[in-house]
Structures are given as C-alpha cells and as structure tokens.
Amino acid sequence: MADVYPGPLFLDATVVSNFASTDGCELLARTLDSPVVTPAVQDELERGEAHGHEYLATAVAAIGDTISVHTVSTPAVEPSSQIELDAGEAESLRGAIATDGTIATDDLAARRAATQQDVPVTGSIGLLVHCITHDELSPETADDWLTTWRDKRGYYAPVDSISGVL
Question: Once rounded to an integer, what is the mean pLDDT over residues 76-103?
Fold first, then answer.
C-alpha cells in the first residue's frame, strides 16, 4: 500500500474481523505491503475467538504467519486524544505515530485522533477499494463482502456499495 499510505499499516481489530468474516485475511496479507497488528489487537481477536466467534480463527491464524505483530512501546504520557480509544486502537495509533506509518480503523474516535496527529488513516472500505484497484478483488465480491459485514456482523458502513465509491 506504499503507493497510497506509508507503511507499516496498523490494522485494528474491527478491520481484521471484517476481513476474517469473509475469508479475506489472506487477501490483506497478499495485497498490502506491510500489514501489522499490535499485541492488544491480537489479544482482542484471540479473546473474540475464545468467546465463540469462530470466524476469527482465520485472523488469529494469519497473525504471526502472514500478518506481523508489531510491539509498540508505551510513551510516558498518552496524548489526550487517545483517552477515548480502546487498547487496540490506542496501541495501533501509537505504532503508526512511532513508525510514520498508517492506521486502518473504522472507529470514528480513532480516525479523529489519527487526523489530529497527522497520521494517514484508512478503514475497511478503503482497503476494499485498494484491493479492487489492484485487481485483487472484483467490485461485485467487494459488495457481497460489505453486505456480509453489515448483515452478519452488524458493521456500520458509510456507503451502500463499494461500486458506488469507485
């Protein structure tokens, strides 16, 4: 994704879980230059799988195999914008700041915090568009995945279809 966003690309749990629910974790690993998760995101995904969200097994398996884990050191003082973020989003944002990378999140508070910190940001929709423009996914499949995310996972999408974004 170096042609659009600087790497590494820190994926938050919602983005990874969306792609996992449509067997797309391998696609992320294949299409993106340097996708990573933080230990807090890894933990969140593992807890989700342990609590019965079986579709997360593909995400958990991909971590350490095709998606790297990037440990982020904790700063002495947290930026005030991160107070409202969960551990995975806060850690991902810190990682993107520390590495001059990008954060992939669908959380509005995390997106705002990233913008305040001048960190490039994308989300699940942006990654679908990226996969389409790099001929890794058809617009029809992307629309099917978006429907699955909404109908089966309760995902809120700011668009009705990916085709409409292109």
Answer: 81
Name the percent of the chain in helix, strand, coil, to the closest 5. Answer: 50, 10, 40
Q: pLDDT at residue 135 above 60?
A: yes
Among all chains, which residue has been given the structure tokens 């520390």?
A: 98
Per-residue pLDDT tens digits for 48-65: 999 999 999 999 999 988
Residue among 76, 72, 58 nearest 10 (CA): 72
Contact 12, 114 (CB under 8 A): no
Q: Which amino acid is at 16?
A: V
Instruction: Quickly tell me which residue has 């107070």 as its tokens.
Output: 83
| Sequence letter at residue 134 | H
Measured in degrees and rounded to the nearest 5, phi and psi for residue 68 equal -75, 155
